[in-house]
Structures are given as C-alpha cells and as structure tokens.
Amino acid sequence: MAAQAQAPIIIKFSHVVAPDTPKGKGAQRFKELAEQRTGGKVKIELYPNSQLYKDKEEMEALQLGSVQMLAPSLAKFGPLGVKDFEVFDLPFIFKDQAAFRAVTEGPVGADLFKKLEPKGIKGLAYWDNGFHIMSANKPLHNVADFKGLKMRIQSSKVLDAQMRALGAIPQVMAFSELYQALQSGVVDGCEGVPSNFYTQKTYEVQKHTTISNHGHLAYAVIVNKKFWDGLPADIRTTLEGAVKDATTYANAIAATENQVALDKMRASGKTTIYTLTPAESAEWKKALMPVHKEMESRVGKATVEAVYKAAGFVPSK
C-alpha cells in the first residue's frame, strides 16, 4: 500500500496593507519561494488588508499562535514593552535609505530582534518602505499649519510626541479605518508612505499632500518563536533563505513603488502635491528635534545612541 502523503505545514501570514504594495508583494514573493523550494512541504496562506485581524489584534494572534507570521511596522513592538523599536519613529533620524539599512542590516538590528524573543517572537528580516509624507485638507508647509489638526497616527508614543510638537492633535487609529475617518472628517490628516496613500485611496479624500520625508516606515517580518523552533531544521533553513531573497526583492521595489504611487496621485488631480523648501524643512526639524530628547528615557539612551552612530546621525545642538 502506498505511503500516505504528509500534509503540508501551513503558515498563515497576515498583514494590514494591500497586496499591491511593497509589503504585499514581498509577502507574495516569500510565498512563491517558500512553496517552490520546499517542494510543497510548506503552504503559505496570505491574509492582506487586515482580513484576519486589525492592527491591535494581530500581535496577540501571533503570540497565541493563531497566525504564524506577520510583517508589522516597527512601532507595534512598543505596546508589547519592547520600546527600543520606537527609535525608528524618531523624526528625521534617517537621512536616506542607506542610513536606515546600516542600522537594520548590522548588529543594532540583530540586537533589537533578540529583545523580542522573551515575548515569544522571532525576528527574521526588516523590510524598508521609504519615507513618510503628510496629508490634510489644507496646505501643510509651515509648522503653524498643523495647529489644532487631528492627525491620525499608529500607536506610538514617539509619533504622539511628534504630532504634539507640530501643534497637532494625534489620533491613534487602525489603518483599515483611515479612509472612512478622513472622508467623514473624524480626522483631518495623516502621515504615511506614497504606496500606502495610493493603494488605500486616502489621497482621494485629502486635498493637500506634502513631501516632507520627516519619518521613515519599515516593517519587521516576524514569526511565532515556538512554531519556528519546532520546524524541521532543513525546512527552517529553506524558509530563512526564502525570507532573505524576498527581503532583497521587497527592499529593491520600495523606492520605485513609492515614486510610481506619487506620480499617479499627482496625475489624478485629486490632491495637490507640494515639496518642502529647504527653509521649511529646517523649520520642521527645529520643531521636531526636541522629541528625540523627550523620548530618550522611553526608547532607551543606549539604543538611541547606537542608532545615531550606525545611521551617521548628528543631533543638532
């Protein structure tokens, strides 16, 4: 009698953005590579757009093992008590993509991942998604323009402090609820990357968009540690290789995808896109630099200094 074929190992991979974003495409690439290289021994089930869990729920689901993989933004680790990751939210900390990668691809990135392990989480990779822009229904050129605006943020004490430093009122809200909140005026504006603005269509309900590059968005590809450690060694090694190659792919397309999204937003005529002048950018920096000092005790002085050093950041006196 023929031996019964072994059922594949199922890995549920959940995330909160659209499939046609850099993160969505990176997840799809991982699925293809993992299934192909394991000869079907592993099956990856992708759940984009918060299909399974909303922002706040997904981390708990991973810790409980209801899903095996996630790719949350780095701010999501603060509420778990691993506040060091909020260093990535500090305004203007990365001058360019290379500065960000110097942190994530070096010892600092590896040390931060180790801090997740007591929470039952294993960090596999960092996915880069470029620099933040701002939007609202009024032009945002000067710091004074933010006064009194209700600005959506993801849950992060650093981002809360950032919006308050600009004179805005931060509003924590799930990404999946953002379009409706902007459309109905529950919030006045938000920050994010162009690829997410475009795929979520938020630019359709925001008259003004400012290219400010004040913040940076990145994700961590993470897995339930108990599940990961319990995989056969050969499967785990194969999946590590698939994650590595999917990371190279996702990071390579991020800059292009964001530029294409910006071009499409501009072409739509639904939002006016404005780039800060050097003088305006300097004014934003001056208003936001105190956030670094204010958040040092929360994030951890050693972590902040390690990131400064790796990223080549020199704080203004």
TrEMBL record:
Signal recorded as keyword: yes
UniProt cross-references to Pfam families, sorted A to Z: DctP
Record's keyword annotation contains Cell membrane: no
CDD domains reported in the protein's UniProt record: PBP2_TRAP_SBP_like_1
Residues spanning the signal sequence: none
InterPro entries xrefs: DctP_fam, TRAP_DctP, TRAP_DctP_sf
PANTHER family hit by this protein: C4-DICARBOXYLATE-BINDING PROTEIN DCTB, PTHR33376
NCBIfam families: dctP, TRAP_S1
Protein name from the UniProt record: TRAP transporter substrate-binding protein
Species this protein is from: Roseateles koreensis
